[in-house]
């Protein structure tokens, strides 16, 4: 029998299926009774689940990254689908198909990487092109960069998500840069490539998506600057030419400032044209992806609106159910 994925579940469904544990918390209700709050995941998405009357021994029997066989029933709670569990069993990883559980980019990763190479290796600045080549000839780096997500729960939170995010930004920049001749094209493209490069080691993504110890303690901005410095030294070794100090400084600044505001984790505000452009392009792609996902994945099919999204501070308008937003104005 074929499995049922998260995106096939709806209110009132009985569930008897295997899932990956993305997160687990043992909590107590108002009466002091313990229950388990679990985030279950497969390649199509994740769903929250609760098991009432849990025990500490049961909570210790599995961890994020393990696989569970669960039974229960779905319900809509505060606008979101969740599973009320009646039974769970820990599964041996050898009994499941790993590709069923980690979400992956819907785009062809090989084609995305080919497009990345096409845009970056066409740059005319010899120092930036040599720097990029040092990244692209590093097989270990390429393997990580093409499989890493761009986040754990927010935008592009799936394998290949980082590559997809970066290539989208490169494509947007490639289309609009003729409108902004004052921006250094090669510098912006390189900054786009490098802005989230630290995420390849900030995150773990072989099973459940999580932060590594270094990711928790240091973060991808600092880790990205360290990786850049390492590759610049390698570039100098391979080319025999010094790397321009100001060019390196501008690249470092783009990495550490691309979040755009102190409250969003930027230690510095964008202070160059290329850094400003990177921040707004990055924010645009992240927001469009996040808003689109909330609309697309909303389980309430009969409503014109999503539930209130705490992280976004608003509800989102989906349109009248059954009517496409096709721009038909014939009645006006």
UniProtKB/TrEMBL annotation:
Taxonomy, superkingdom: Bacteria
Documented EC number(s): 3.1.-.-
InterPro entries hit by this protein: HD/PDEase_dom, HD_domain, NA-bd_OB-fold, NA-bd_OB_tRNA, YhaM_exoribonuc/phosphodiest
GO molecular function list: hydrolase activity; nucleic acid binding
UniProt keyword list: Hydrolase
Main EC class the enzyme belongs to: hydrolase
Record flagged with keyword Magnesium: no
Domain HD/PDEase residue range list: 158-296
GO BP annotations, alphabetical order: rRNA 3'-end processing
Protein name, as recorded: 3'-5' exoribonuclease YhaM
Gene source species: Paludisphaera borealis
Phylogenetic classification of the source organism: Bacteria, Pseudomonadati, Planctomycetota, Planctomycetia, Isosphaerales
Gene that this polypeptide is encoded by: yhaM_2
């Amino acid at each position: 029998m074929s499995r049922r994925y998260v995106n096939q579940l709806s209110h009132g469904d009985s569930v008897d299926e295997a899932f990956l544990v993305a997160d687990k918390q043992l909590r107590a209700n108002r009466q002091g009774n313990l229950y388990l709050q679990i985030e279950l995941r497969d390649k199509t998405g994740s769903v929250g689940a609760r098991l009432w009357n849990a025990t500490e021994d049961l909570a210790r029997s599995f961890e994020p990254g393990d696989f569970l066989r669960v039974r229960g029933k779905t319900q809509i709670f505060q606008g979101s689908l969740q599973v009320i569990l009646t039974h769970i069993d820990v599964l041996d990883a050898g009994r499941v198909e790993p590709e069923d559980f980690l979400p992956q980019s819907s785009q062809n990763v090989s084609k995305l990487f080919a497009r990345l190479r096409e845009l970056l290796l066409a740059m005319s600045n010899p120092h930036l092109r040599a720097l990029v080549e040092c990244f692209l000839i590093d097989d270990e780096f390429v393997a990580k960069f093409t499989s890493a997500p761009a986040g754990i729960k927010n935008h592009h939170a799936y394998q290949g998500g980082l590559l997809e995010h970066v290539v989208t930004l490169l494509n947007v920049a490639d289309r609009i840069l003729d409108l902004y001749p004052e921006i250094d094209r090669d510098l912006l493209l390189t900054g786009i490539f490098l802005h989230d490069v630290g995420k390849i080691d900030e995150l773990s993504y072989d099973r459940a998506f999580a932060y590594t110890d270094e990711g928790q303690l240091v973060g991808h901005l600092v880790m990205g600057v360290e990786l850049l410095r390492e590759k610049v030294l390698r570039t100098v070794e391979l080319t025999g030419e010094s790397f321009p100090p100001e060019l390196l400084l501008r690249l470092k600044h783009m990495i550490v400032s691309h979040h755009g505001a102190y409250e969003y984790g930027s230690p510095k505000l964008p202070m160059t044209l290329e850094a400003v452009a990177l921040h707004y392009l990055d924010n645009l792609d992240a927001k469009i992806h996040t808003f689109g996902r909330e609309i697309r994945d909303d389980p309430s099919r009969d409503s014109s609106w999503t539930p209130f999204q705490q992280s976004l501070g608003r509800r989102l308008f989906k349109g009248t159910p059954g009517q496409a937003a096709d721009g038909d104005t014939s009645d006006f």
